[in-house]
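[stage:ingest] chain + small molecule (NDP)
[stage:ingest] validated
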Amino acid sequence: MKTSRFPGFYNMTVEERRQLLTTMDTFTDEEKGYLFSNEPLPTDTADKMIENVVGTFPLPLGLGLNFLINGKEYVIPMAIEEPSVVASASYIAKTVRNAGGFTTEATDRVMIGQIQVVGCPDFKAAKEAVLKEKDALIADANAAYPSLVARGGGAEDLEVRVLNEESDSKYGQMLILHVYINTCDAMGANIINTMVESLAPTVETITEGKVYLRILSNYPDRCLARARCVIPPELLQTGSYTGEEVRDGVIHAYEFAASDPYRAVTHNKGIMNGIDPIVIATGNDWRAVEAGAHAHAARFGKYSSMTEWSKDEDGNLVGELELPMSVGTVGGSTHVHPISKLAYKILDVDSAQELAQVIVSVGLAQNLGALKALATDGIQKGHMALHSRSVAIAAGATGEMIDIIAERLVDEKEIRVGKAKEMVEEYIK
Ligand code: NDP
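[stage:predict] done
[stage:export] tokens:
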């Protein structure tokens, strides 16, 4: 059984945690400066990232611990405002580590560029004409981004669909090209958009139609990452609940989400609680990841659970998560935000494929954390205790008052801002 690299991290001061962190990797002095700085994203940099900048909006950055994935140890940088997420991910990662860790895999990083053509005189003929020129179009797309091809990526395949062929369709017919592009270690949005835009004039000539949209799809269903864990029931025992009871409760909770979209949305939100923080910390586009994940959850025609939980023949709990993962380790904002640069050092991933596999492992851990709590004591017990500090701050507590009032709120089992305000007034009298 392996032990954590950061024993006692939870009980350290922020300063002690930062000191420990700087010993785990070869941070440059400049990077250490950002880690200890009160302005980790300089306003000048922020002003170059988006428009109309007036400041920055910091989030807490925590570390998810105990992750063992394909036999490799990972420390997970997580940027999130919600209490209990980092604690829950780390706690479940420890359970999974004791069961041998997560196993993961990923497909090649093949993203999709879409081209919309309307007004073709004959849509079937236009489709055939495009397919006849498939190799030439792929070559043209690659000519628009030779550096990607030199890296071993580039356009690999092309498909064509005709939408709204039915005579009673509410919408007009259109021809849609899908250009499949391996974007290597980049998320690829700008790369893909450049490539598909370059094809537009040729596509118009071939189809005799008019090209409108030329943009990536945020549902890259050939760019998938999968995580799996197998946990013996004895590792799931909690309080008065046996491991078998917890396992069965998790499976019932999954079956609820798999059967009911109202539950699936909340179930999946819990998965994204684990995924978004690492996507944000690594400077990736979390809206793109969110959009793709929810589309994948509805791929069989009904919105459902992103994860699957079952029992194997030995009675172990088996969890699986497969999601499209349009993230990069280069490009976009990944190395613009100074803290993202640090995040890559903390994570120690070599490729976008590896990052994608780490991300789905954190999502799977987060899901188990939520389902295990829901199937036993309910989430409020653990969550509200951690939330009590935010409640105290919202009520105006500062400095040492925060922990004192948070503790009193928990003791009196009334974790409410109104109650906390009364306590703050009492404290400062
Ligand atoms: P970039 O435009 O920054 O392109 C990535 C660059 O990284 C490439 O141009 C390439 O440059 C360089 N690179 C270096 N090493 C590698 C490698 N190993 N593999 C691949 N590329 C490498 O970013 P993306 O195209 O990834 O676009 C991502 C950004 O686009 C995100 O910020 C996203 O928010 C945004 N976006 C998202 C949209 C959406 O999701 N709908 C729409 C539009 C934009 P070179 O080959 O010259 O070295």
